[in-house]
Design goal:
The chain is an alpha+beta fold and about 350 residues long. The chain has helices at about 1-15, 25-35, 40-45, 50-80, 105-120, 135-140, 170-180, 220-235, 290-295, 310-320, 335; strands at about 125, 130-135, 160, 160-165, 185-195, 205-215, 245-250, 255-260, 280-290, 305-310. A 7-stranded mixed beta sheet has the order 1-5-6-10-9-8-7, sandwiched between helices. The chain has a 3-stranded antiparallel beta sheet with strand order 2-4-3. α1 runs parallel beside α4 and α5 (about 105-120) packs across α10 (about 310-320). The structure holds 3,4-dihydroxyphenylalanine.
């Protein structure tokens, strides 16, 4: 018994003085002290020789020793694992990378770009004009003199500072500015934002977007207008789409028409979108009124031309089946991220 205790003390001192330098040295230690045929196991085997009255105290000493041997082993093991040679890679290369969220094009921009690209292929150039406009370019030059009742068709925001200034109610102002330049022929499309004093609802807004078209040359006819618009809607909506023209009134064109396309949703059978008529209106158009040509310094005896104007929101709603105009300006990411990220 005395001898055993001395032996244990010697092992303790040995263990305290050890520092295994690497994994191999640690393994040698483990086998020597903690292995199946190791010292700890052997000492427990000695228990049976210990007299009954000393079993308790010897057991306690033995357990202490075992804990020391095991504790040191765990300590060295973690210490060695922290060493650079053995270190686990700090970065897990199999994890998916962190990606930056990609923005997407606004649906209005997507459709505007598509409209522009179709007309560019037909030789139309892009022209732009100011959103704050004077009365002449927005109304008077377009055959809408002051007090003309047709001004009521467009509720207008006027500027306090100068009652001659307003937020343009349509992109037709760009027609006037292009004609004033005096360079003929003219073949332009004019995309842009316009403003009207409307109560905001699912179907109306105080600002929206239009694309205006204008073609002025010698001998331009209504047939040219029809063919151009027919090509345009086939490119935008597909080859199967049908068109029809209804007589209408705009002060700046004579004759004037509104163009309908066959309903994309029900293909003419009748549904809510086309109000069960099979047709949906998409634009206004006509032959440029001789007064407008004159107002802009162009000789109506020599030149003729056509013009058209369409709302981009309306076309976008038809194309993507969107039923509330307000979605376009509310900036709800859940709505916006549904559209293509391509540029
Ligand atoms: N400016 C018209 C509007 O905002 C749309 C329009 C109709 C434009 C006929 C035109 C046109 O150039 O010929 O309601």
């Amino acid at each position: 018994m005395e001898q055993l205790l001395e032996q244990i003390n010697a092992y303790k001192t040995e263990i305290e003085s050890l520092t295994p330098a690497d994994a191999a040295a640690l393994e040698t230690y483990r086998i020597r002290f903690l292995g199946a045929k190791g010292i700890v196991k052997a000492l427990f085997g000695e228990m049976k020789q210990v007299p009954n009255e000393s079993k308790k105290s010897f057991g306690a000493v033995l357990n202490d020793f075992k804990q020391l041997a095991e504790g040191k082993y765990e300590e060295w093991k973690t210490g060695l694992a922290g060493q650079p040679a053995e270190a686990a890679p700090a970065v897990d290369f199999t994890l998916p990378g962190a990606t930056d969220p990609m923005g997407s094009r606004h649906p209005i921009s997507l459709v505007r770009n598509e409209i522009v690209s179709i007309f560019r292929r037909l030789g139309f150039a892009v022209a732009e004009g100011p959103e704050i406009e004077d009365d002449f370019h927005n109304f008077t030059a377009l055959n809408l003199p002051e007090h003309h009742p047709a001004r009521d068709m467009q509720d207008t925001f006027y500027l306090h500072r100068n009652p001659d200034w307003l937020l343009r109610t349509h992109t037709s102002n760009v027609q006037v500015r292009e004609m004033e330049k005096g360079k003929l022929p003219i073949r332009v499309i004019c995309p842009g934002r316009v403003y009207r004093n409307e109560t905001i609802s699912a179907r109306a807004h105080c600002f929206f977007h239009q694309v205006e078209g204008l073609y002025i040359d010698e001998q331009v006819s209504f047939a040219d207008l029809k063919q151009t618009l027919y090509f345009f809607v086939q490119e935008l909506f597909g080859q199967d789409v049908k068109i029809r023209f209804r007589p209408s009134y705009f002060p700046f064109t004579e004759p004037s028409a509104e163009m309908d396309i066959s309903c994309l949703l029900c293909h003419g059978k009748g549904c809510n979108v086309c109000k069960h008529t099979g047709w949906v209106e998409i634009l206004g158009c006509g032959m440029v009124h001789p007064h407008v040509l004159e107002n802009c310094g162009i000789d109506p005896n020599k030149y003729t031309g056509y013009a058209f104007g369409m709302g981009i929101e309306r076309i976008t709603m038809l194309k993507y089946q969107i039923n509330d105009l307000r979605l376009f300006s509310e900036n709800d990411v859940r709505f916006l991220e549904q559209f293509s990220a391509s540029f």
